[in-house]
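Newbie here. two chains, one complex. Structure please?
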Amino acid sequence: MKDVMGIVYTSKDDLTLRELTSQRAVAAVPVAGRYRIIDFVISNLVNSNIRNVGIIAQKNYQSLMDHLGSGKEWDLHTRNNGLFILPPYLTRENGGEYAGILDALRANFDYLRRSTQEYAILTTSDYVMTTSLEPMIQQHIKSGADITIMYQQVTPQLTEFSASSKNNHVYMDIAEDGTVKDLEINPNAASYGNMALNVIMIKRTLLIYLVDQAISQGLHDLEADVLRPAAHSGSMKILGYEEKSYYRRVETIRGYFNLNMDLLKQGVFEEVFGKTPVYTKTRDSVPTIYRESAKVANSLIADGCVIDGTVEDSVVFRGVVVGKGAKLKNCVILQDCYIEDGVELENVIFDKAVTIRKGERLVGPKQYPIVIGKNVTL
Amino acid sequence: MKRKKCIAMLLAGGQGSRLGLLTKVMAKPAVPFGGKYRIIDFPLSNCTNSNIDTVGVLTQYRPLELNSYIGSGQTWDLDLSYGGVYVLPPYATADSSEWYKGTANAIFQNFGFIEQFDPEYVLVLSGDHIYKMDYNKMLQEHIEKGADVTIAVRPVPWEVAPSFGIMNVDGENNIIEFEEKPKQPKSNLASMGVYIFTWEIMKKYLTDDNADPNSKNDFGKNIIPNLLRDNKKLYAYAFTSYWKDVGTIASLWEANMDLLKDPPEFDLTDPRWKIYSRTPVMPPHYIAPGAEVTGSMITEGCTIKGTVKNSVLFAGVKVAEGAVVEDSVIMPGSSIEFGAIVRRAIVAENCVIGKNAYVGEAEGDIALVGHGTALPEGYRVKAGEQVDTEEITRREAAEK
């Protein structure tokens, strides 16, 4: 789809992920052993042949820049189009963060105007899903809709990871012909059974027009100020597109933990990694080495680790050392952690490069895993 | 353009016939090694780490795999606008078209390439050894000693010396004699196939050699003896770290096993001397409940449900429940099905070892299953045997 551009909005509201986002954007949070959340979003765009991808960055975008680089891992380092990282720049109106996606798009009007594609796909970068966007693109073009909103029917699994958070949760009333009749934003109890997945398709010129209109009227919220009034009045044709792939938004520590655990299930793993490749920055790690007393069951282990202990029901990122006699159960251990001999860990999330000394024991409650921040030595 | 001080020419054209079925579909330098590498990653990474940024890779035999693997050279940071990695196959000219006749001839045919960079020195490498070497140190010695040619040598055990090209040196490491596979070696310094030539000398000797119709156009057989005859200064650069020729099934298997020792005989983890490789994009590997993995190397995309002991598994390998892999090397994309037992074996890329099949034995020579073979259920490959799809068909036909 040469005629579609992708715009990825990285949000700034990271509070619910606590330590994990104290030094990085949600989009840059490591997940599934070797990825960052944004890898899934960008891979979906690239695998749908979208060649112009703009990343709207806000606060804490250093680790995102570092991760994305020139975009070569996603084959986005091309002469034309490619990857554009759009950092916030300070102006009188702009203090380095945006009031919402409309604000962010307004600040990057030049990029939007300069792009040549007819259509744009707008997406957030706070979810894990592997899918092709081509069916949605086809539906959008064929139906002649002004705006197409991706949604999924609400199931307990879809929302269980984010129950306590109410950040941009949009539920939609969708008529039988697919028309979106109403949008409900952050309700305490949703009246509609369709949750928007924060992926929207629209003509680029219409998007420019809508953004300009809204901002000039002092409006900042895409869903509440633009989409809802249009759905009510019927001034634009807004259709829903039902996406059935595995989708989990990462909003809370528990949700983050459960998502990693979920990937240990064969069916979920296949849904996320079995369809199309998910690209990420490579690190030239060596293969993982298992020593004589290693005992591993039901775990995902990335490259560059040295395992000499017991690891069960866990996700272990690149370059982690698990010493002799150490026992890990239900853990998410990020890159370069060092777990010395005899350590016992259960229901624990370690951010990057945590070291835990010989013989220590750390057991968190199952429902509320303990998080240890980056570079800490216990 | 700025003159390059030293450029490398990597001889990657050989078939490597001693690797049997492993090199049936690819050249030796493209053979996988160590879980996520190919043999050529070692000389290429050594170049990058030694600040040698211009490398010509001379290909001839089965170049497809190698060409696509090298690509733009980005993996080794060799995608440069001036310099970088170039694949150099034989080519036709207005009045001749020739294959590379020998190692020296291959380089002679690419003088045009070398001259573009106007180098002072040319480093000649081969694509069949596993080692980490700072070529820059060797170049420094070459310059300091004022040598015309410097040859890297490594002491080998005396009992295997007769199978190498042996350098006899004087007290100052000047080479006084070269003997190809001597029955009674006078020294145990084996040539590593790594040479540094002062470009002017290389130009003269390779040109003369090309004009000699009786020459085999080989560095060992012709060029070095000619240099010695003319009393040129040939210096032996001693290298004592890990260096392994992986030209045979047994030595390739052994070199893989060397990685599994604790501490390993050959360490790939040195952050200051990384070995770069072009890796497929795959998720972390999954170890299922009930699996047993010890003393092994496992990489991305693998799914292990059975038992893996003392083995090296490449990307995307699947080991089913009840399957056993022991003392073996399983190359990318291969699958070991339920109940199959693989021992002391090399299984090449994209094979399927059928249910309850046996490959190799607990003792004896290394068994080999060739590229893309689907081994039928219950099939047996004995120690030291090599099979591929053709061989299986032949055997089945013979039985009928």
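Moderator note: The interface with chain B takes residues 32-35, 72-73, 264, 269, 272-273, 277-280, 282, 284, 286-304, 311, 315-317 of chain A (CB under 8 Å). The mean pLDDT of chain A is 90. Thread marked as resolved.
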